[in-house]
Amino acid sequence: MAFSTNPLSLSVPDPAFETWLRDSGYLEVLDQRTSELHRISHSVPSTTSTNSVVPTYSTTTTVTGVFVSLLSRILTLLSLFTLNPFAKLTTDDFSGQTPSWTTLFVGSCHSYCFPSSSSQARLRVHENVKRYARNYATLFVIFFACTLYKMPIALVGLLSSLALWDIFKFFSERWGLDQYPVVRQCLIRGAQCVTAVILICSNVQMALFWALGVSYAVMVLHAAFRKLTPVKQDFRGR
């Protein structure tokens, strides 16, 4: 479902029509409509400058238009890192089936375009993060595993901390520490301190920081440039 123009323009103003599309769940229509209006608004000045009689005015208008367009895109990119991409994310978004990596998550070359404004970028980010939450979580796990592969000391530290807690659980059940809650709490606090020392000395926090940074940047950029597709099409793709 797609509208090139407002079919109710004779009775419904554009802001009310966009509100209806947003409330009805047709976010992909609103996304496509915003891109088309931006393309039309930028094609009109170029046509006017082409038919201009004085070439100097045409050159000045073209340079000004390019500068304004470049500045607008830079501000749109900067606005991506000021919004909260998890504002509309819920736990139910992780309970569904993972969208297809090829047809839905990656898509084709026509599935991407630069957001025309910060509001369109915010709309795409919030909706795509909800739709592809499981894909982004998988990417974080992959990035974290690759970071640990590049940092073997951090990998050893992480495995050592996990082994420490397995040993603690084994001896806790063998010695029946549940009957001695005070002793058990003291041993747990000591194991936590030892785990913190191991993780800090092995730079596991740096591996986690790099994995979070890279995965966050990939998530925000992909969600902002990825066009919204109809929800029914997503279900058919699954």
From TrEMBL:
Pfam families: PRA1. The chain crosses the membrane at residues 139-165, 207-225. It is a multi-pass membrane protein. It is found in: Endomembrane system; Membrane. It comes from the Eukaryota. The keyword Glycosyltransferase does not apply. Its main location: membrane. Keywords: Membrane, Transmembrane, Transmembrane helix, Transport. InterPro entries: Prenylated_rab_accept_PRA1. May be involved in both secretory and endocytic intracellular trafficking in the endosomal/prevacuolar compartments. Belongs to the PRA1 family. This is PRA1 family protein.
